Amino acid sequence: MKIASLIICFILTLQTSAMAADYASQISAYRRTHGLSSVKIDSWLNAVALQQARAMASSGTISHTVGGSFSSRVASLRKSRAAENIAAGFRTFSETLKQWEESPGHRENLLMAGAKKVGVASVSNPSSPYRVFWAMVITD
Predict the structure, then answer these.
(1) Helices assigned H by DSSP within 1-140
(2) Backbone angles phi, psi at 8, to 5 degrees
(3) Could you tell me the CA-to-CA distances from 136 to 41, 101, 106, 121, 133 in Å, in that order?
(4) What whole-number distance in Å separates Cα of residue 140 and Cα of residue 138?
(5) pTM flag (> 0.90)
(6) Measured on CA atoms in the order 28, 111, 34, 93, is the torsion positive or negative?
(7) CA–CA–CA angle 122, 128, 133 (5° rounding)
(8) Residue 8: pLDDT band with limits 50, 70, 90
(9) Is 137 exposed, middle or buried (CB count within 10 Å of its CB: 0-12, 13-18, 19+)?
(10) CA–CA dist 100, 8 (Å, integer)
(11) Which of 18, 88, 116, 125 has the fewest C-beta atoms under 10 angstroms from its C-beta?
């Protein structure tokens, strides 16, 4: 039983890592069309994004502060610049990214000059009208 649980956990971790790498690839492609450098997925930023997505899914609200202030959530990263995009109600990352690209504030975060790392997470809450909550953190 424990071995089966470990195997399932390992498979889910691999799937999550593969999805996160795809998210970074999509963000990087968008950045390159605007003459900016690519970003790489970062496990710490994934954890920060996951914390926020979980907090939003748990509360059923879309809010930058439901998981605590952004500055307090990224303070331990010791980065000079960091930004966060959040969304809800989109089933896929491609849909979410498109919405961010079309929103001036979100687009500004995606196109942060000097950004090098990104973390992305989504959490489902089937009882919420939004169903899926997304968070992205990008840093230099």
Answers:
(1) 2-33, 43-59, 70-74, 93-102, 104-110
(2) -60, -45
(3) 11, 13, 10, 7, 11
(4) 7
(5) no
(6) positive
(7) 15
(8) very low
(9) buried
(10) 32
(11) 18
> ∠ CA 100-104-108 to the nearest 5 degrees?
80
On the 0-12 / 13-18 / 19+ scale of CB atoms within 10 A, 80 is: exposed
DSSP letters of 68-100? S-HHHHHGGG--S-EEEEEEES-SSHHHHHHHH
- 8 A C-beta contact, residue 92 and residue 21: no
Matching residue, tokens 């069309």: 33
pLDDT at position 18: 55
Structure tokens at 57: 């899914």
